[in-house]
Write a structure and sequence with these properties.
Elements (H helix, E strand, L loop, with lengths): L1 H58 L6 H18 L5 H28 L4
Helix pairs in contact: 1-2, 1-3
Amino acid sequence: MSGLILPVVALLAGAGLLLVLHLLGRYRLRQHAIGQVLDAADALEARLRTARGEIEAIAGDQVNPVRAAMQDLLQQRLWLQDNAQRASLPQLANVHQTLDRARAQLDQQLQRIAQARGEE
């Protein structure tokens, strides 16, 4: 019986080590995904600030379509702050994709503004 104890302990230790490595890997993936979402949010915010300046240069302060987008971005950041550690990796990827799509659409709109101003 004592000859079985050592192999069982070694098996349990190996299983425990694999579990710890798995959890560490998932933690790193989550932290990387959160970092990507934060980077995308920062990029979108920078583009929104540029857009606000461009629109104000053309239309003045009365027209402010960027305000709603900035509020939406703030809501995304608040969601991330409250839920990032519990969110699934697909949820984080979805938020990241949403932010990237919004930035791409904003870039297209800024290009149209530049073309309308003759800046191409």
